Structure to design on (105 residues):
């Protein structure tokens, strides 16, 4: 994408990891490869439609890998790409800030 599509670098970042669950999905994938149902168990409020959409967008943006195994029943795993792993310090900072915010409530 051209840099002209974004107002600033923060806008570019939010376009990739913004949305209701993208950052949460990335956070759960930062330390392990998960199957669809594993992600769904970790994000209890997410609907199947929303999870599928968010995973598709994250894959299209090159932040996660989707690996399908030719077995019965079908098995699909999700993991961070190299680009996705560059977000780990940001996700860790968001986690730390969130912990402080949760403590204040």
């Amino acid at each position: 994408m051209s840099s002209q599509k974004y107002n600033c670098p923060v806008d570019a970042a939010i376009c990739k990891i913004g949305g209701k669950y993208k950052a949460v999905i990335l956070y759960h994938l930062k330390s392990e490869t998960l199957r669809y149902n594993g992600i769904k168990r970790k994000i209890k409020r997410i609907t199947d439609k929303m999870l599928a959409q968010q995973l598709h967008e994250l894959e299209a943006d090159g932040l996660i890998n989707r690996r399908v195994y030719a077995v019965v029943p079908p098995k699909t795993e999700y993991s961070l790409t190299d680009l996705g792993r560059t977000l780990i310090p940001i996700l860790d900072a968001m986690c730390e800030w969130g912990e402080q915010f949760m403590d204040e409530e």
About this structure: The chain has a mean pLDDT of 93. The two ends are 40 Å apart (CA to CA).
